[in-house]
Design a protein that fits this description.
Blueprint: H1 5-15, H2 20-32, H3 36-50, H4 54-66, H5 70-83, H6 88-100, H7 104-115, E1 120-123, E2 130-136, E3 154-160, E4 177-180, H8 193-201, E5 206-207, H9 210-214, H10 221-224, E6 231-232, E7 236-240, H11 241-246, H12 248-253, E8 257-261, E9 271-273, H13 276-281, E10 289-294, E11 305-313, E12 316-325, H14 341-352, H15 354-358, H16 360-373, E13 377-384, E14 390-396, H17 413-416, H18 418-436
Parallel strand pairs: 2-3, 2-4, 4-5, 6-14
Antiparallel strand pairs: 1-3, 7-10, 8-9, 8-10, 11-12, 11-13, 13-14
Helix pairs in contact: 1-2, 2-3, 3-4, 4-5, 5-6, 6-7
């Protein structure tokens, strides 16, 4: 036993995870340390255990999950599943947490437990103006649809097509259009026969057809975008774990190389390999396949790296954000765009006049890329090289688009980003009007 009362009680809970009295004691210990949120969660868990109420535990977990507290959410979801192993929502969210941690086999087991029981979910809109059938894949890698189909006005019928059951397509609720949100080609292989059969016979507008999404896999992009003026797509190869370990394919591509696990998002597992020694020492995690991309130096003359994101709505480009970082692996969430203020000023100039910020030939090249991708909704992350060419990092449908940034600090985003949603909405209207004719 340790002298720390919280640690001692956590040890006791690990041995007796269903004892409400231990959680009440734990709540008191947390309160004694001034951790009110932890104390409240433990108290709610004690009440739920005493009442044998798994949904109450699920609600505690979901509150943590929505607040970005993955560790706490995981704990309470696991506890809820001890009371009810068939709690689909707990399996779904726990799978997302585990996948984000890189624990792919465990995540897949929870996906199987969730979607094996239920693969169609309906979210009714209180002010329904549209009913959309969303085709999705289990796990990460779906198109973020919250801003595209607001829950207040769009009833969303989400069908997890990698778990489609025989005859399920014939039993779906009514819908106005179909949006394929399975935007990561790594996540969805050949469609199940039930889904193929459904798509062949259904007559509603279909946005982002699966065959078009499949062409955006990282190793297929160089061919897809070949021949476009002012566009550079670094060579990419896809390798199995054994091929990667062999090393010969990497040597042929030439170092330095960027190593990325297949299906990874948000920079998870991405490594820069200077040579064979770094390849041999690379941490591979649980992935079974990997992408190797030839590294291209895109640092600006001021020493910073810039990654631009443009969104295509009905194949037309719209600027979304600019991330400026001192690190070669640029992500908006880690680029500290709040400080200094010159970063936001530069981003504002890009959003207000992208053709001027990028130079007109680069902006014209982006329009050509949109036509070549031929998706109703997608995006591209890219940099400019010293010659002003577009250097493509990735181009696919999984690009996050939202308007959650501070309206005080990022007021300009609240002026320009809504143009993307307006263009997408106009496309939906045209699609539905064409269908009605």
């Amino acid at each position: 036993m340790t002298a720390d009362p919280v640690a001692a009680l956590e040890e006791a809970v690990a041995h007796s995870p269903l004892d409400p009295a231990l959680y009440r004691a734990l709540a008191a210990a947390w309160r004694g340390k001034g951790e009110a949120a932890e104390a409240m969660a433990a108290e709610l868990a004690a009440d739920a255990l005493a009442a044998r109420a798994p949904l109450a535990l699920y609600n505690v977990a979901t509150a943590c999950f929505q607040a970005g507290q993955a560790r706490q959410a995981k704990r309470w979801y696991e506890l809820a599943l001890r009371l009810d192993p068939d709690l689909v929502g707990a399996h779904r969210n726990l799978a997302a947490i585990l996948e984000n941690e890189g624990r792919l086999a465990e995540a897949r087991a929870h996906c199987d437990a969730a979607y094996g029981r239920q693969s169609v979910f309906v979210e009714p809109a209180p002010e329904e103006k549209l009913r959309v059938l969303v085709l999705a894949a289990a796990g990460l890698g779906n198109v973020p649809i919250e801003a595209l189909f607001p829950a207040s006005t769009a009833t969303r019928i989400t069908w997890f097509i990698d778990y489609a059951k025989e005859g399920e397509g014939e039993r779906l609720p009514p819908y106005d259009l179909v949006f394929n949100a399975a935007g990561d080609p790594d996540r969805v292989g050949p469609l199940l026969p039930e889904v193929d059969h459904f798509l062949a016979r259904q007559s509603a507008p279909l946005l982002n057809p699966p065959e078009s999404v499949a062409r955006t896999a990282r190793h297929r992009l160089p061919e897809l975008l070949s021949g476009l003026a002012d566009v550079a797509v670094p060579p990419v190869i896809r390798l199995s774990r054994a091929e990667l370990a062999d090393g010969r394919a990497a040597a042929r591509l030439g170092f330095p190389l960027i190593l990325r696990p297949e299906g990874a998002h948000g920079g998870k597992g991405v490594q820069l390999l200077a040579g064979p020694a770094e390849l041999a020492a690379a941490e591979l995690g649980e992935a079974e396949a990997f992408y190797l991309t030839a590294y291209r130096e895109c640092r600006s003359p001021d020493g910073y790296y810039r990654k631009y994101r443009v969104i295509f709505a009905d194949r037309t480009p719209y600027p979304y954000h600019l991330a400026i970082s001192q690190h070669w692996l640029v992500h908006y969430f880690s680029a500290d765009m709040q400080h200094p203020s010159w970063k936001r000023a530069e981003e504002e100039r890009f959003l207000a006049d992208p053709a001027h910020a990028l130079r007109r030939r680069a902006w014209a090249a982006l329009a050509e890329i949109g036509r070549r991708l031929d998706l109703d909704f997608c995006g591209i992350d890219f940099a400019l090289d010293a010659a002003g060419n577009i250097v493509v990092f990735e181009a696919n449908a999984t690009m996050a688009v939202h308007l959650r940034d501070s309206p005080e600090l990022f007021a300009y985003k609240h002026v320009h980003v809504p143009k993307i949603f307006a263009a997408f909405g106009a496309m939906l209207k045209r699609s539905l009007e064409a269908q009605a004719r």
